[in-house]
Amino acid sequence: MSRIKKLFASLLLATALVTVNLGFCWSVSAQTVRYVHTDGIGSVTVLTDANRNITEWREYEPYGASLGGTVDGVGYTGHPMDSATGLTYMQQRYYDAEVGRFLSVDPIQAYGSPIRAFNRYWYADNNPYSFTDPDGRESTKIRDMERVTAVAPAPQPVQLPAVLTLGAVLVERTAPAAVSWVSPIAGSIVLTPVLFFASPDACGGARCGELSWQESRRHPPGYWPADRGSEEWGRRRGIGAIEGRRIFHGIKQNDKGQGGGKGLDNYGVNPDTGDVVNPEGEVIGNLESG
Fold it and tell me: Region (Disordered) spans which residues (predicted)?
C-alpha cells in the first residue's frame, strides 16, 4: 500500500511539473517584442514592434512632463517614471517634472563656483535645454555627454536592426552644425540629435543600406529640415523630390521678402501635411497650394 501511495504521489508530481513547464512555454511564446528608441538626451520617444511599425510616440515638455498621457516605465532622460505618483526616479532623488523640482535636497554640497548651483532643489541648473542630470546629484552639459568618434562595425544585411537609434549623439560645436558619422554602410552625416532608420537592403543609396534621418529636434514635432522634408513630400505625392523642393523655396523666398526668417534658414516642412514653418515656428504656407 505504501508503494502505491508513493507511485501515485510521483505521478502527481510529474503531472504538476509538466503542467508548469507547458504553462511557462506558453507564456514565453505569447510575449510581445518592443524596441525602445531615444532622443539626444536619452528620453524614450518611440516604441516599435518586431515589424518596424511605430506603436507609440512620446513627447515631453522641457522639464520632462509627458505630453499626451502618463508614462509608466523608462521615460524622460532614461529615468523610470511612475504614473501613479507622477514622479521620476533619478537614482539619488525623486523629481517632479510638473514643477521642475526635486523633492529632496541635492546630496552634493553647494559649490563655491558657479553660484547658480547653490539652489539644491532645482533641476539641471534651471536650464533643461543646455543641461541634464544623469543621477540626481549634478547637472551635465548636454553638448559634453558624448563625442561621435567611433567607427561602427560592419553589420551584415540580415543583422541590421529594424530601427537604428543613435541615442546621445552630441557634438562640441553648436547646432545646427553637423558631424560625420563614419560607417562602413555609408558615409552618412549626422544632424544632432536625430532619429535614424536603417534599410536592410544590401546595396547603396538612400533606401539601400544608408542611414537616413527622420526628424530633427530643431523643428516642431512632425517637421523635417525643409529641403529634406519637401523632397520627401514630393516623393509621396508622386511629383518628385526636385519639384517638392522647388515649391518650398518659392514659399521661403516669399516669406523672406516680407521680413520673415530673421536672417535664419532653418525652415521646416511636414512631409505628411505639406505645411511649412519658419525659424520662429510659425506656419507660413503649404506645399499643396504653393
Answer: 252-290
